[in-house]
Design goal:
The complex is a heterodimer of chains A (about 280) and B (about 300).
Chain A: H1 2-12, H2 15-30, H3 34-47, H4 66-78, H5 83-95, H6 99-108, H7 119-125, H8 131-138, H9 143-147, H10 150-162, H11 179-194, H12 213-223, H13 228-240, H14 254-261, H15 267-280
Chain B: E1 3-5, H1 15-23, E2 26-32, H2 43-54, H3 56-62, E3 67-72, H4 76-79, H5 82-91, E4 101-108, H6 114-130, E5 134-137, H7 143-157, E6 164-167, H8 174-179, E7 183-187, H9 196-206, E8 211-214, H10 226-236, H11 241-257, H12 265-268, H13 291-295
Parallel strand pairs in B: 1-2, 2-3, 3-4, 4-5, 5-6, 6-7, 7-8
Helix pairs in contact in B: 6-7, 9-10, 10-11
The chains are: A mainly alpha (about 280), B alpha/beta (about 300).
The complex binds zinc ion.
Zinc ion binds near residues 32 and 106 of chain B.
Chain lengths: ~280, ~300
């Protein structure tokens, strides 16, 4: 991974900056000391360009800025150290991190060792009010799926719905569905509707497999909505739900269901469309 | 006109202050780490303080279109608590190379004790190591001797005077500071110490070279509009616009720009006020403030 990051940086950043980073990496690999690591990790900001966007064959890092990319490369060095050194420095840096540094730390979680010791930090990071920090943990990151308890997972997904984040980019959004989450989503939807507000249609994906009477009613409401995104979501739920509790909705949603059949509509396509809308204008 | 106030403790100021500063043309500010009035007894409170300087306070300033930088350091008052001081020395390397940290500061002497000297030296060495400017707090008591002693210590450590901004100067200290090649900053205080009429007299005598004017507004009686007000008075008293711009904008930018962490394009390219960025749902905006009224009394006595 380190080579991928360095190659991507070489294509974007100045030669001086990249050679500085290579120097830091080789020095820290051979002889790791805390202070030089701190200086290097934060000092990335003195040499790289935070506005530059990374291109790479590795999809995970496409769109990252140079700060994040260079800092993750340095964290990969830290991850090779013994457990105590690693955990001490990782938490020292995290506890004193600015916004971009936190984003790098959370983005690096998937490649770190001793992941079980980092779960609490990730859960805590999700409490941030800063959307970019929240995103670095929740979106495009396999870490929560692999390590979170149901309770932490459900909090993360509910917050994503609450602040209108693109759910299709949460790893495990399908695999980690559960009863409590489905009920909480229905509760949130009812609260929003009572206030005359909307809920992102992607939310209903997490209810598949847990359709009770009330949620069946919610899906029926979506199926009859004037908003095409709501109907699309209802159709996707109906198409996937195997309990037979939503069979009666199939006639209302015939158009949407045929789109699904020919591959014109999927959770991903709906999610991407919602993401474009979120960028333009918040759902709320 | 736009201004760069290189010394102001915004954690102690209100959003009204931010609004008035922005309206008066303050484009960028530096918030030095300093004493908070109530002495700290745990290193954790330093950590949270530093975190707020690089985090929430920076965000708060951005809500008013003001670019916020900071200096990181252990102030001389708290340097007298050795156990705490040692812990802060361990903490500082985590902060000093961060984005937007433009120096080590404010450090220096208060009582001119042995402990204060020890941590002045330690932090000067840290500044050398990280290649950062130093922001110096000079003592209010026995100022002349304390200022000279500070410069001696810094030169002994090997710091270049060009990288040091000596603050809280007055008529008694300025000559030696400038003669030795340091930057001389002046804090404009209401009621006591240095009013802005005296500042204008100083400028008429010493010119604008290596002179910086700041407000050092904090939790005490102080004025966050001191820089624009002093500029207005300078203009009235016949100081040239070029010289006014030097001491209220270009000089602090040049001095702290040596950190590589602040440049004019940081705010010149700025597309106005960024009210929705980063801290979602946490906008700090309220109704307007009458800046004309705030600026109408620009004489600070
Ligand atoms: Zn101060």
């Amino acid at each position: 991974m380190r080579d991928t990051l360095l190659a991507a940086l070489s294509a974007s950043a100045s030669a001086d900056a990249v050679s500085w980073l290579r120097g830091q990496i080789s020095e820290l690999s051979e002889n790791f000391e805390k202070h030089p690591f701190y200086y290097a990790f934060s000092g990335v900001s003195r040499r790289f360009d935070k506005a530059a966007t990374i291109q790479s064959e590795n999809e995970t890092i496409v769109g990252w800025d140079e700060f994040r990319t260079a800092r993750v490369a340095l964290l990969l060095v830290l991850a090779e150290k013994d457990k105590d050194t690693f955990l001490e420095s990782f938490s020292a840096v995290l506890n004193t991190a600015d916004i971009r540094e936190q984003i790098a730390l959370f983005s690096a979680l998937r490649w770190m060792r001793h992941q079980e010791d980092l779960v609490e930090s990730a859960v805590d990071g999700l409490r941030s009010n800063i959307v970019d920090i929240y995103d670095s943990i929740a979106l495009d990151n396999p870490f929560p799926q692999e390590h979170f308890t149901d309770e932490a997972w459900n909090q993360m997904v509910l917050k994503a719905i609450f602040i209108s984040r693109p759910l299709h980019r949460i790893h495990g959004i399908e695999a980690r569905r559960n009863q409590a989450l489905a009920e909480a989503i229905s509760d949130l939807a009812h609260e929003r509707w009572a206030a005359g507000r909307l809920i992102t249609p992607e939310a209903w994906r997490s209810c598949i497999g847990f359709i009770d009477e009330r949620i069946a009613g919610d899906i029926a409401k979506m199926a009859e909505s004037e908003n095409p995104d709501d109907r699309a979501a209802a159709a996707l739920v109906v198409a996937e739900e195997e309990s037979g509790k939503l069979e009666s909705r199939k006639t209302t949603l015939a158009d949407e269901l045929s789109k699904i059949e020919i591959g014109d509509l999927s959770w991903k396509s709906l999610g991407q469309e919602m993401e474009d809308k979120i960028i333009r204008k918040s759902l709320t | 006109m736009r201004f760069f106030d290189s010394h102001v403790h915004m954690v102690s100021r209100t959003t009204d202050d931010y609004q008035r500063m922005a309206a008066a043309g303050v484009a960028a500010i530096i918030e030095p780490s300093f004493w908070q009035g109530q002495p700290r007894t745990e290193v954790g409170t330093f950590k949270d303080y530093f975190n707020s300087l690089i985090g929430f306070e920076r965000f708060r300033a951005s809500q008013f279109g003001i670019k916020h930088y900071c200096t990181i350091g252990l102030n001389p008052k708290e340097a007298n608590n050795e156990k705490l001081a040692e812990a802060v020395m361990e903490l500082m390397p985590l902060y000093i190379c961060k984005e937007g940290v433009v120096g080590i500061g404010e450090i220096g002497y208060d009582d001119q004790s042995k402990m204060e000297e020890k941590y002045l030296i330690r932090q000067a060495e840290m500044a050398l190591e990280a290649d950062l400017p130093i922001q110096i707090h000079t003592p209010h008591r026995d100022k002349k001797k304390g200022t000279n002693r500070t410069m001696d210590v810094l030169v002994d450590v090997g710091v270049s005077p060009d990288k040091v901004i000596i603050d809280h100067n007055n008529e008694e200290t300025v000559k030696e500071v400038l003669d030795r090649g340091f930057w001389a900053a002046f804090t404009i205080y209401p009621h006591t110490k240095l009013g802005n009429e005296r500042m204008v007299d100083l400028m008429l005598e010493y010119g604008a070279e290596k002179i910086v004017v700041d407000s050092a507004a904090d939790w005490g009686i102080s004025d966050p509009l001191a820089v624009p007000k002093t500029a207005a008075l300078m203009k009235e008293r016949g100081v040239t616009i070029e010289e006014i711009e030097k001491v209220t904008y270009h000089n602090p930018l040049a001095a702290y720009g040596q950190s590589g962490q602040v440049e004019e394009s940081d705010w010149e390219d700025h597309e106005g006020i960024d009210a929705t960025a980063l801290f979602e749902g946490n906008t700090l905006f309220r109704g307007g403030q009458d800046i004309d009224e705030a600026m109408s009394q620009y004489l600070i006595e």
